[in-house]
Structure formats: C-alpha cells, structure tokens
Amino acid sequence: MLLSFLCISSFAYAQNITDISGRLTDAATGAALPSVTVGVKGSNKGTFTDASGRYSLKAAPADSLVFSMIGFVSQTVLVGNRSKIDIQLESSNKVLTQVVVVGYGTQQKKDVTGSVGIVPMKNIKDLPVAGIDQALSGQIAGIQVNTSNGIPGGGPQVQVRGIGAVGAGSQPLYVIDGFPLSTTSVETSNPMNAINPQDIESMAVLKDASATAIYGSRGANGVVLITTKRGSSGKPAVQVSASTGWQTVPQKGRPDLMNGQEFAQFWRELTEDKIRFEQHREPTEADIPEKYRNPALIGKGTDWFEEVTRVAPMQEVNVSVSGGGEKTRTYVSAGYLNQDGVMINTGYKRYTVRANVETILSNKLKVGLNIAPSFATKKGSIRGEGRDEVFGIASPIEPVYRPDGSYNAFIQSPGTFGLPNPVMLLNETINNAQNNRLIISGWGELEVIKNLKFKSTFNVDWQSAKAEYFRPSTLGGTNSAPPTIPSGSVGNANIMNWLNENTLTYNWAPAGGHNLTALLGYTVQQQRETYANFTGTNFPDDNIKTLNAAATLTGGTDKQEWVLLSYLARVNYAYKDKYLVTATIRSDGSSRFGADNRWGTFPSLALGWRVSQENFMLGAPVFSDLKIRASYGFTGNFNIGNYSYMSNIGTADYVLGGALAGGRVMNSFGNPVLGWEKMRELNIGLDVGLWKDRLYITADLYKRNTEDLLLQVEIPGSSGFTTVTENRGDLENRGLEIGIASRNIENSRFTWGTSFNIAFNRNKVLALGRSNDPIYSGNSSEGNPTNVTMVGRPLAMLYGYVFDGIYQNQAEVAKGPAFPGAIPGNIRFKDVNGDGQITPRQDFDVIGNPYPNFIWGLTNTLTYGNFDLRVLVVGSMGADRLHATNDYNGNIDGVFNVRREVKDRWRSESQPGNGRIPTTNGSGRGRVMFRDVSSLTVEKNDYAWVKNITLGYTIPKKGFISSARIYASVQNAFLFTKYSGNPEVSNYLGKGGSGALVPGIDYSNYPVPRIFSLGTNLTF
User: In 3D, which of 154, 127, 135 has the Cα closest to residue 342?
Assistant: First the structure.
C-alpha cells in the first residue's frame, strides 16, 4: 500500500510540474538584475537570470523558489497556481542603493559624482508647515533656511551655499516632477505653497556645478528637486492624515516696551530734565502734563502687542487613494489647510487636489498625466514693528475701548504722535488676497529600439491672483484723527508658463563591467504675464468699498513675457562600479538678455573613484563604502527683469508751437550686451561608510566664483543718465560641508539614529563695477545706508556709526570729537575720518558681518516598541544682526512708546544710566543720532533652535486598518539665544534696498509662533 501511494504521488507531482517564468528587477531603481540565482528550495534544480533579468524553469505548485544575489536580500516565494513570478529584490545596503533624483533622471547614491543632498522624508512628514521649503531647515549641509516671519502662508528665505547672486535672485530653482517652476509667482508670500507637502515622495537638493549644470542658466543658486507620489500596483490603499493644533507667540522675542506707568514716569522725567536744562530751575507739579503727574495711578495700561496677538487654531486634513493594476497606476489626493494667524484678522486657507496617472500602453510605450490645482486665500499683511501701526509703539496709557464699548479710535497722549487704534486697524482694514494655481504635466516615453528611450513632456503652470485693500474713514492716520478720506486698491495678475522638453536616453551595459547612460535633450519654455493695479482715493463714504465709488483712480496695466530655448546633453559612465565619470553641457538662449549676448553655454565634468571596490580594500571590513569625488563646472543666473537690457520709455510733455504736447522720453539707458551672472565652481567630495554603514559621512569642499555680476554701474553724465545695468563684478564663496548619519542602536525593541550636518561658508567680493568703488545700500529712518559692499570684504557688510560711549561731562564734549551742539549725555561715536567732528556717512564704518561662521542641524530619531520620538535642532554661530527697530522704539523724543531699558538712560553725571542710552536733553541731533544705524544696536545672533519635537505611537494592525499612527508635535519649541529678536531674520526687503545687498537688518517682522498639534495617519 505504501509503495502504491508513493507511485501515485510521484505520478501526480510529475503531472503538476509547469513552466515558471518571470523577471527580476532592482526594487530601488526598477533596473533589470542579471545573474540572479533562481532555485527550487530543497533541490539542486535552478537557473540564472539573463541580461534583461528574465528566467524560466520548471516547478510544481507546492515548490518554493529562492531568489538570491550578492548585495541583495534573498527572497523565498511559494509557486502556487502561478506561471509567472516577477520579483523585486531589495538591496542589502540601503545607503548605497538609495535612489537619488538628479536632473532628468535618477541614480543610485553609489554612482553619484556631484554634491547632492537627500532630504529624509521621514524627518519632515509631521511638520505643520504650509510649504515644503519650510521643512528643509536643518536637513542638509549647506542649506540655510531662515524663517524670517511667521505670517500665515508665508515662506522662508532659502539659500544654497551662501549668497551667490547680487543683481539677480538668490533663491534656488524648484523643480516639481521634472518641471522647473516659474521664477515669477503671484503668490508673493511663498510660491511653494501651491504644493501640498503630503503629496511629496522625495526631495533632493543639487548643490555643486556638476549637479546643477544640467539646468544651465537657472542652476547657479542650487536646485531643489521634488518628486510627488505615484500610484502603486495592487489593491487600492486609502491614506488619511489629519491634525489640529494651536499657535501661540512665545515670550522670547516679544518687544520689551514700557507699560503705562513706566511711560508716564518717562514722560514726567523727560519734562523735568528739559526744564532743568533749558530754564535752569527746578520743575513744579504744574510743569508736568496732568496725565503724567501720578504714574502709579495709571497701572500697566495697554499692552498693544498683547492686544493684537492671540492663540490661533490650525487644522489640516489630507486624503489620498493609490492603486492600480499591471498596466495603469493612479494616485489621487485632496488636502485642506486652515491656519489662522497669531495676529488678529490674519489667516491663510488652502485647498489642493492632485491626480497622478501612469499607464503602459504597450511593452514599448507608456504615458502619464499629472494634474494639481490649488486654491488659496489670505487675509492681512503685516510688515513689522515700527513699519506698521500695530506692533505696540502707540501710547500704552490709552485704552483699547471707550467706557461705552466702542473703539477708542485715535490713540494719543500729551506729546505723543496720534496713531490709529492698532486693534481697530487690524479688524476694520480689508486686506485680502486670493491665489489660484494649476500645474499640469503630461508625458510619454517610447522605447525606440532596445535600450534607447525617447521621452517628451508638456507642462503648464497657470496662476491667477486677486488682491483687494480698503482703509475706511474711521481709522485716521498718523497725527490725523478720524474721520479721514477712505482709500482702497485692487490688483490682479495672470501668469501662463508652458514648457516642452524632449529627451533621448540610451543605456549601454555590455559584458566586462562597462555601464553608460547618455542623455540628449531639447527644451523650450515661455511665460506670459499680465498685471493690473489700481488705487482709488476720495471715496465719499465707507459704504461702497469697490473702486467704482472712488472719485480719483490711478494705476494701470502691464504685460510681460520671456522665452528660454535650451539644448542639453549628459553622459554617465561607470567601469566595474569603481570608476565614475559624469559630463554635462547645456546651452541656453534667453529673451531676458541683450540681442548681442543672448546665449550661454554651461559645461561641467565630475569624476568619482569608489576606492572601497578596489581589491586592496576588500579585506578592510570597516569600510562599507569609500568614494572620492571631484567636479568642476559652470552655471548661470537669469533671474532679472524681462527687459533690463532695453531702454525704458516713458511719457513727457513737449513744447510745440508754443503749446504743450504729449510725447515719449527715454527713462533709462539700454545695454544690448547684458548677459548672465555666471558661476564657476570646483567641488571635492568624500563619501565614507563605516561598519556596514552604521556610520556614514559625506564631506564637500568647494570654491565658487560668481562672475559678471549684474550691477547698476555709474556712467558719465554726458550720456544723459547716471547709471546702467552691466555685467561687472566678481564674488567668491568658499566652504566646507559635513554630513553625518549614524545608526547608534539597533535591536528588536529599541533603535536610535542620528543625522548631523554642519556647513562653513565665507564670501568675499573680488571686483565691483568699472572702478571698484563701494556700493552703499539700504536706508535707515534717517536716510543713511545700512550696508556697504567693498572689494576684499564680504558682500554687504553692516555699516554705520561706531558707538564709543556717552559724553559724561562738558570736558569730554570739549575734548571731542563731537557733532555741533553736543552736550553732556549725548551719544559719542568714533571719528572715523579723523577730522575732529562726527558727520553722518563720513564717519561710518563696517560695524558687523551678517554671515554666520557656520550653520548646523541635528536630528535624533528614537523608537521603542510602538513609540517613536524625533527631535530636530538647528543653529547658527557668528553672525551679526542690526536690530533696526531702534529707529522707532529708540525714539527718545517721547512721541512713541520705547523700550523698557530707556528708563536707565543718562540723566546727569551722577545718574549716568547704563552707558548706552543718551539724555533726552539738547538739540534733536543728539537724539536722532541715537536711533540712526550704529554698532550700538548690532547684536550677535548665535542661536540653537529646537525646531520640532514629535512623539508618535503606532497602533497594531486591526481589521481593515492596515496601519495607524497618532502623534503630538511642537514646532518652534525652544529657542536658546541672547539675541533680542528672531535670529533668523536675514534680509530687509524694503526702504531703499532689497535682497542680497541688504542682509542682516531686523525690523521685527510678523512673530514666529510656537505650534502645538495633535495628528493621526491612517491607511486602509
């Protein structure tokens, strides 16, 4: 019976043996895997995959197939009733095989020769941010992200390897799914807000010229590559993420102004000191304004900053569905963000939708379509303390409301400037904006012949915006009590940007260890912009707020466009996975530059040597990777006005026949050879993996020169003009970047991983204009420059008086140097030019360096069981900031509320105060000089900022819920600094200066809130 059973079983087994076939691919890249061993478990039967990763063998349903290859994790799969089994093998070395998105393609990290930073998405997935650029902070060495304000929907200033541009923009280029986004955006707060952070799959930052040269004229400031999520094959997966939270203004950084009692006491003493100085007598009670005679009765009065700020809620909900079959995969998502501002009547709402679809039409052709509309509304626009009427410089003695509950509309105490009620101003001013954006990308990829693929994409970025403003008669103005004449404005903008790219990619991998990928491309991009802005004045009343009610209208429309035509090529070659070469060239022609200088060519070359693959290193198990990289290349910057090379034409009146006649006049001098700002960069890098990549170190040393700076250059007056835009100047940046990732502890219950980065950068001006004369930029409240750019020094150093104490007596005044009319108690500055007098600008000197010695970021991630904890800290050391709010809260004339430290000012030789605040006596010159730009208000802004703390718990799988996680997060948790404001304020973009030429000026912008949030991530 036993023998009969065995015979029957053997016959049945033989009858069930079938042909099994399939294909083996790399799970990270999708590339075919040749020479993979495919065996039947428990037998000596097996085979190998061919050059395309395919295999075939015979097996029974009860058999299990084992797939194994050196460098990859083996897999064992039961055959069952299948005849085709495709397998994706995971690399056993996750660091080296990590896929890196580079321009127009991807590479494994082990093959990258340029300086490319990869953003670990797990570190930023729960951050409560409106734009993904805010999440870059502290993630990659050499990327500086300054959260200069906390306005809802706002964005940070992002710089890659320091300031590399002067006359052109210094922000990096953002590329979404291969589409370089428009350099112009109607979303003035942050153009990246149109992209929902929850839709992003991966982010990489291209830093050196080898990596960015493929983007040619737009790669000079670095490139941020963003890839959105794609659909996955199989059963549809539904993901839901939701969070709710509240925002508060931390005590750190709030303006430290006098309360009502202190301000009354200040005004009482100011009056007393003035009488003693001018009338040489002791003041009487009758000399004191009645409101200031009994400061103790006033109490704390009104804290205007407290009145205009609040605890603000914030909510976000995102839903996505991902799925598909063997032919078609789809990812669809919808998101909603509602962020009220911590200042009253400010806020931001955004609605986003995305659909990414890919389908395989045949074994040679696949196509895809991405559609991403977004709709956003914003209310409120606050610039900063002193520059707006809402930050607290109004008299703290006056109340917000009258006894009957109505607004106390006009805030004024004896001797102070009258100002609109800040609470009323924010609540009753209409200041709204609406932004709509639609990004569409369609593509098709055809395998023309084996290993040769042609890809064509067509992309559209359409933007539309509308803004409206109305200031009612009930508000009044500075020293102008209501009612006043209402005013309003309306603006709208439409931008259409389209891009067509066509590329051929050839992969060649013959036997013998050679591997070559060649790319050839042609692109054309065009942008058209239309604007309309109108201001209405002399409204008869507040009832009709639209411009048709205004008696006077001013403004107009504008239309602009630009075109960019490009040719590009790149070759990546590797031999035996040890010797790597990347050569890139791109040629761009832009309508933004003169007809005689419209084309630019940007080549680069990078070499890599994977020393760890050499035979003499294979016996050194401590090294899991050791690669030396070197690159040299050129990039450009075309972020200037569309018509800067042309002479601008305006209107003017002429006298013809004794009468006025309208005509045209040339307002500026053209330059037909105006061209790019060019960057050339040398980068030497080292990648080291130790102990199976438990510790991975990346280091880059670079030198970058920005040549042909776009500057306003002085020309002879005989031309009829004073300046012209030319390419003259040279700026050098040198730096060192180090990134360290470590897996400190790894076991079944507890893991601890750390990533740390630090970057050092030094910039120096090598040449300026035609004569190397200094460039003065910025504009203080007294009309003096705040920054100076000189050859041999860093760009745009802080510039002003050099504080030298307080004159304590008449003998010190007589000894000098002093300004005319100086008295004891006045501020004393250094006589820089040595003429014996203190004179504005002539006695200005460099008073600070706005650039840090180094910046750093540290992330610690810990898991214990189902709990996880992530802590992100960023920091900066060595930079100076000019706390320019002294223009206003240092006005010791008594017309505004002032800082609390003004109580400790100089009042007499026996009451010298703290040695920093001068007397209120004497001519206005002494008080004006105190609030002008000087080293007195320059502070070190060294800081360490705990940007985020997130604690999460993963709920074990139950029922139809495949995964669930809940978390609590604190954003901007703790700030450690001696700086008196927000240390990440970096550039002041108004009042006579902008961008790179006015760094380090702090006017205390919209406060950065601390955000507490609770959230959940669910997958069904």
Answer: 154
